[in-house]
Write a sequence for this structure.
């Protein structure tokens, strides 16, 4: 027995699907498959179900499983998952290290310049790189 519960809480009609086990003999382990494709499920809906079984004893015995809820992800959850997957693909494709918001003091212009023992860029007394211009 299964039924749909919409994301807004509306409960749908119960659907009973039976398995023919008459040809299986006195004892059998039975497996079934629930076809939910034509149940009209939408993102955020839940398909609730339980399984019932009866034996063919002169006084039949009945067994019933616990109720199971299968919830489909909502559109918001699907979008969030798609965004996370896209970020993962983008970060895997980007060979640069992740940005931390803190830049190295030697990054940028002159990062590869030679420095003297005082930490100044070689070539100018003020420590800046490049050529000196005359004061015209």
């Amino acid at each position: 027995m299964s039924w749909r519960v919409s994301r807004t809480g509306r409960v749908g009609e119960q659907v009973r699907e039976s398995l023919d086990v008459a040809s299986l003999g006195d004892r059998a382990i039975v497996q079934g498959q629930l076809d939910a494709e034509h149940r009209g499920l939408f993102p955020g809906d839940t398909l609730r179900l339980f399984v019932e079984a009866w034996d063919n004893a002169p006084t039949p015995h009945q067994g019933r499983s616990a109720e199971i809820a299968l919830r489909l992800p909502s559109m918001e959850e699907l979008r969030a998952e798609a965004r996370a997957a896209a970020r993962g693909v983008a970060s895997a494709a980007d060979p640069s290290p992740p940005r931390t918001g803190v830049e190295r003091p030697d990054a940028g212009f002159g990062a590869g310049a030679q420095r003297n023992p005082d930490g100044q860029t070689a070539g100018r007394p003020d420590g800046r790189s490049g050529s000196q211009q005359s004061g015209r």
The mean pLDDT is 79. Residues 1-17+32-92 form one domain. The first strand starts at residue 2 and ends at 5. The two ends are 94 Å apart (CA to CA).
